[in-house]
């Protein structure tokens, strides 16, 4: 930058000479007009409108002029810079429009190209179904209780009122754990999730509202409809003034949330040692809603044209179970149910073969993703 | 229990328009689950008529003897002329009354009858056997009817009972009474509110003297024994058609009149009976416990060693029957037995249940005894049997008989009249409980609102107030129980439960598929894992009755199931597979002890519960991952990447991250991993380092043993320990001053783990450090042999100012200094 120099005649400073300013302006406008794309325009803008462009440099000289000459020179240079700036903007708009029309189109890609770079994962539908079942009950104010899979016979049978030589005890084909020296161990692989009832009553404060999803075991060979390792979903309520009506209400809520609004359920009298009275629970077939019954023209595969689907067992907690768990049956009563998780999955999602749930073929799990 | 409808109707005045199917659904709702309704003869059409054999011409020259018969069928054939029928059976003579199906008829199983030429003769119709008519199984020839059974030419379908609806009821273990026509009929009558005729209601005269000597040695084994004889029985007498048909419809095989009668009475009254050949019995009949070492060959020709817990029926020569289970071969009633002794007893159910299980012998008798039979029906049933022997087999009933009994006062149940209503949640009208108690045969005394109920002798299952409630509710209708909402007091999922869900979702999100494998493993699996003989994972919980003898153990690790499932997927052509499983493993405790079985009439003591839980194996929850194939596939974007040890360790990091736990990783050598590519994984629990698992590439021998692709990798973590390492999250302060980044390249010995350098840098950098990240590892030409260059990016930031270049540089130098001190790292020039 030049220092103020009073000895010069202002008109004699070359860059501020009107002809020179006009020339710089013309040169800039020509270069702007000649810029063929946005990159060129950017260079032109730096060269002719940037901080080190001739016009910018000329502008700096104005400060050195005597006050009388400043206004005139300022007006001249300012006008030229404004014209150049406007020309850049105008050219920018033209070139951007051109780019939008041509270049972006040329840059198009095939968006249908796959991006299956990493293999997909999924959770097992039995896990997600059991979680969804649990969530229905958690919403009703239940907690999730758990217990061991290798279980003491006392919990699996005795405390649940399976008397030592009663035929009910042999109905459930039990895996027995070998004891010391090959003798009896007093332990089994739990045949049902019901021992969690007793564990809950022994460890929790009353009232108890729990569900217990879990693995259970029976000595059935694997085939299309049986598996030695399966999953049950237990429910237990022990409180004051509990009736079978509350039991039905809870089961109805589950059925409606999983299979559809206004589906009817029905209880059939049955027998389980740990509930009395006991019932089997059927729900109305959610596919035909009973329309297939006695109607051979429209058979229903889901319910075998029975109109009802068995979903589990339930009943009023046998007071003997309460006694074994230290709960006074004169004060408290309750109910329990057991639903099949495999059955629920089979019905809710049309799984036809038990083996699909067991074999771990990723094609099966993938179909369900991470949430049901 | 199979229940023919016409038989049932003999005891119940059921309206004629009630169909078997309708009854089946009513019974099913009321607790007698009808599994099927068999419509026997449903597909059968006539004409099926009585015929009389007029002439028999024996045809010769064929492979088997053949008869050409002229059979009078009256006007049933439209002409009145004798019908020509060719027949292969030989058990009939001219003049016999037979059953003829005429052309146009269709027999059970879609067997159409026509007229055709066969063996050179015309044959227009068929003389029928019992099997062909669906009556019972009989391959000895055609049915020859007794004289007077029907008139020639008349329709035989109804009289022979060829059409019958049979209910097949799956009787639950508590309802022993329903294993009889009598018991089912009583429930049916109650359900429909119609009259019931009790077949056990019969008059039995007092004995005129002592019958065959009989003794109950121990009243704890049996409380009633009846021995009733019939003499001059004709062992050749046939079982009448109606009885054979009912036995067949009820699922029993007709044998001989004496046996058939005992079975028939059992079906009718529920009391198993035994018919002895009295001439083969020696002296007094005793109900006693078997003696040690005693043996008996039972009717099924099996020589059985008896247990001292077995009840036997013995004579003076030894045990002759396993009481309540099966008779002995020696005293079996035979084709020459004319003196029959019917034994009818009431045994202690638990003894019968144990004997049945011990000898693996479930019989019609044992099924009834273990569920409980009427304790007072023995005399009636024995009398009913000998009367039938008299009526059908020409026998003479002895008026002297033996009836030994040890009466005990029946137990009573005290129950409020409103109990059923409060159990069901339904307001039943007054008198409802009393009404149904009477219907099922209970007696009661009322004291205000409290009833003292005495259950009938055929309902030993009724012991508790809730048993009474169930009876009331099932007759009032389970379908009438209302649906009432309720609300618990739950506090949501526990942290552990939330954590498991998060781990599952995370592993699925990063590409793993969840599997649920069986927990059964065998020695071969443990060998495949390359476990040394003294590896603690060799000591496992063992099943007494495994499904597969090769897999009797419960898994000590999730890996065998995961590896087999991986191999299965690869075998099915799915090559790029990552799997995970979350589940329990089973680790036996140090001391093998039998889990105690405390009494159930009270809460177990703290000590008893502790002993039970101490006996149970530890069952920690684990998560495991296995993978092989491409972790990233080759595609249009470029080359892919094989799954490796690094993915397995990363899976562990993912689990730790989502659990909010920091993982410490260290090289280790642990089966079944590749000793050079195995990481031991640790967490800090209150400052203590705790091992939580391993990850890395699998040992080549394990890969081979499980038929896996080379370089398959695996990870297994103890989720319970991960969870215990989790601490509460407190929100971090987010600073917005500019970040200062500093890159450092360090040269170290190739053996120095990057993790050690990284943690030294982090520790040395001090509080200004926001993060440290490795971005390059180089061991090429510009680094001397046996050394490697590692490059880290350090990010610094202060919460209260913009850091100067000097401050950031000083922090970097401090970081490098500690790395140098700890690992010998040299800053690369």
Which terms would index this structure?
heterodimer; A: 372 residues; alpha+beta; seven-stranded mixed β-sheet; three-stranded antiparallel β-sheet; 13 helices; B: 829 residues; six-stranded antiparallel β-sheet; 22 helices; 42 strands
Shape of chain A: elongated
Provide the spatial order of strands within the biggest beta sheet of chain B. 28-31-32-38-37-36-35
Overall number of strands of chain A: 10
The fraction of residues assigned to DSSP E strands of chain B is: 25-35%
- Distance N to C terminus of chain A: 74 Å
Query: Low-confidence runs of chain A (pLDDT<50, min 5 residues)?
Result: none
Rg over CA atoms of chain A: 42 Å
- Secondary-structure content class of chain B: alpha+beta
- How far apart the termini of chain B lie comes to 93 Å
Layout of helices and strands:
The complex is a heterodimer of chains A (372) and B (829).
Chain A: H1 18-34, H2 38-49, H3 54-61, H4 67-106, H5 125-139, E1 143-144, E2 150-152, H6 153-156, H7 167-171, E3 176-178, E4 184-189, H8 195-203, E5 208-217, E6 229-239, H9 244-259, E7 265-272, E8 275-284, E9 308-317, H10 319-324, E10 333-340, H11 341-349, H12 354-358, H13 362-366
Parallel strand pairs in A: 1-5
Antiparallel strand pairs in A: 2-4, 3-4, 5-6, 6-10, 7-8, 8-9, 9-10
Chain B: E1 2-4, H1 5-9, H2 20-29, E2 33-40, E3 48-59, E4 66-72, E5 83-87, E6 97-101, E7 106-107, E8 111-112, E9 115-118, E10 121-124, E11 126-127, H3 130-133, E12 144-145, H4 157-160, E13 164-170, H5 181-192, E14 214-216, E15 222-231, H6 241-249, H7 257-269, E16 274-277, E17 285-289, E18 295-297, E19 303-305, E20 311-315, E21 318-322, E22 326-327, E23 340-347, H8 349-358, H9 364-371, H10 378-393, E24 396-405, E25 413-416, H11 419-424, H12 432-439, E26 443-447, E27 450-454, H13 465-476, H14 495-509, E28 513-514, E29 520-521, H15 523-528, E30 553-554, H16 559-571, E31 577-584, H17 606-615, E32 621-628, E33 630-632, E34 641-642, H18 645-659, E35 664-667, E36 673-685, E37 688-698, H19 700-705, E38 713-718, H20 719-725, E39 740-749, H21 754-765, E40 769-778, E41 787-796, H22 805-823, E42 826-827
Parallel strand pairs in B: 14-17, 28-31
Antiparallel strand pairs in B: 1-13, 2-13, 3-4, 3-6, 4-5, 6-11, 6-12, 7-8, 9-10, 15-23, 15-24, 16-23, 17-20, 18-19, 20-21, 21-22, 25-27, 26-27, 29-30, 31-32, 32-38, 33-34, 35-36, 36-37, 37-38, 39-41, 39-42, 40-41
